[in-house]
């Protein structure tokens, strides 16, 4: 229970759904397909680079905005992908994970009473970051099966206090990859209302057949108002290293850095060095293509498992989650279903209602992570076969 002296701003932000479901999974010995992290090792060439950095004495504070070699590698990678030259000194900042970059940016641009527009379902850190800045999140709902939004609802969410729009593409938990025409509608509005865009693109390398990842920063007139936030943890399957970064114009970076210097000051030096190596050599090794192929195979493995036990899955274009329809299993809501699945069936999933402003409006779905080894998915399959078609839950 939280201390009664804690500020009321913290109300409603007790323990994250990921911590809760992982704890329940451990308690019940469940196969954890809940919290999004790979249960396989990241690439040896990146791990070796971290060890070498430690052994060669790269162990003191890094410059606050990031080690030069990593910033240069991020800038080069951005230029490679988008054709735009980026200044590594003023247009790239390294943070302790994407979470820190998002938090810093929200604190930098939002004050008490200000508003952030974000598409719902949204990653749980977004409303928390807005609330801690004294601001408020205005959701615009994405609706299945295509997870499209109503442009009129988007316009209606903008008000005189809107300072920031938070976008996530590829999207967690739906797997949606925003199309260029959708991004244009968003971009027009943000330009018109002079709103800063924080674009969370942590799954940019995990996109599937036919889908193309487009950053809103690459749309006409958008560079100057967009911070693109990314995380090397997803791309290189090393989520525990927590190295993230923001790419964007110098004035927005200056604001972000003003917060970053007092939140963490700097990010772990040897891991920054290792990720510099990772970004430098990955394209030449065909690493990104292989990552996509492997995730496509993992997605299909999990899809087959879920469909076999009567859990119909929704199509996904990116990221590493599948949403399955759980209506018809007799549960009141997704939380009851996911708790039952974890404690009685032995497979943990995440209830997507945790990603909604009003959890009662969430469709009845469960989120399963497929960043898992084949043997983990096989074990999950064995257990899921115990799931009765109509378990008659509460
Ligand atoms: N944004 C989204 C959409 C995520 O799913 C996650 C977590 N995996 C993050 C941000 C956080 O990334 P990091 O671990 O680098 O803080
Ligand atoms: N992003 C991961 C997910 O969506 C979890 C990260 C975390 O535990 N905060 O599952």
From TrEMBL:
Domain Aminotransferase class I/classII large: 31-384
Cofactor dependence: pyridoxal 5'-phosphate
Keywords, in A-Z order: Aminotransferase, Pyridoxal phosphate, Transferase
Top EC class, one word: transferase
InterPro entries: Aminotransferase_I/II_large, Kynurenine-oxoglutarate_AT, PyrdxlP-dep_Trfase, PyrdxlP-dep_Trfase_major, PyrdxlP-dep_Trfase_small
Documented EC number(s): 2.6.1.1
GO molecular function: kynurenine-oxoglutarate transaminase activity; L-aspartate:2-oxoglutarate aminotransferase activity; pyridoxal phosphate binding
GO cellular component: cytoplasm
Family: Belongs to the class-I pyridoxal-phosphate-dependent aminotransferase family.
Protein name: Aspartate aminotransferase
Source organism of this protein record: uncultured Thermomicrobiales bacterium
């Amino acid at each position: 229970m939280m201390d009664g002296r804690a500020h009321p701003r913290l109300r409603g932000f007790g323990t994250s759904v990921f911590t809760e479901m992982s704890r329940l999974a451990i308690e019940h010995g469940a196969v954890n397909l809940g919290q999004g992290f790979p249960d396989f090792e990241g690439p040896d060439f990146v791990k070796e680079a971290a060890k070498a950095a430690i052994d060669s004495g790269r162990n003191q504070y890094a410059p606050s905005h990031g080690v030069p070699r990593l910033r240069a590698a991020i800038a080069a990678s951005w230029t490679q992908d988008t054709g735009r030259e980026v200044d590594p000194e003023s247009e790239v900042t390294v943070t302790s994970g994407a979470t820190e970059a998002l938090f810093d940016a929200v604190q930098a641009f939002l004050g008490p009473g200000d508003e952030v527009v974000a598409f719902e379902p949204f990653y749980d850190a977004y409303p928390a970051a807005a609330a801690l800045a004294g601001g408020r999140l205005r959701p615009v709902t994405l609706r299945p099966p295509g997870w499209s939004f109503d442009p009129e609802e988007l316009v209606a969410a903008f008000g005189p206090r809107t300072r920031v729009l938070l976008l996530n593409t590829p999207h967690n938990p739906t797997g949606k990859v925003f199309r260029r025409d959708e991004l244009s509608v968003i971009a027009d509005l943000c330009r018109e209302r002079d709103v800063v865009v924080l674009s969370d693109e942590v799954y940019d390398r995990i996109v599937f057949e036919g889908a193309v990842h487009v950053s809103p920063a690459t749309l006409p007139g958008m560079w100057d108002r967009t911070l693109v936030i990314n995380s090397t943890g997803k791309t290189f399957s090393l989520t525990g290293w927590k190295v993230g970064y923001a790419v964007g114009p110098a004035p927005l970076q200056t604001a972000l850095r003003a917060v970053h210097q007092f939140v963490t000051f700097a990010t772990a030096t040897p891991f920054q060095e290792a990720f510099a190596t990772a970004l430098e050599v990955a394209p030449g090794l065909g690493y990104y293509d292989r990552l996509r192929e492997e995730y496509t195979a993992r997605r299909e493995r999990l899809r087959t498992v879920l469909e076999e036990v009567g859990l119909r899955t929704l199509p996904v274009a990116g990221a590493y989650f599948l949403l399955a329809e759980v209506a018809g299993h007799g549960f009141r809501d997704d939380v009851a279903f996911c708790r039952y699945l974890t404690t009685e069936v032995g497979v943990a999933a995440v209830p997507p209602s945790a990603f909604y402003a009003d959890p009662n409006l969430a469709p009845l779905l469960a989120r399963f992570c497929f960043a898992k080894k084949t043997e983990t998915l096989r074990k999950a399959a064995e257990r899921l076969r115990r799931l009765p078609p109509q378990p008659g839950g509460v």
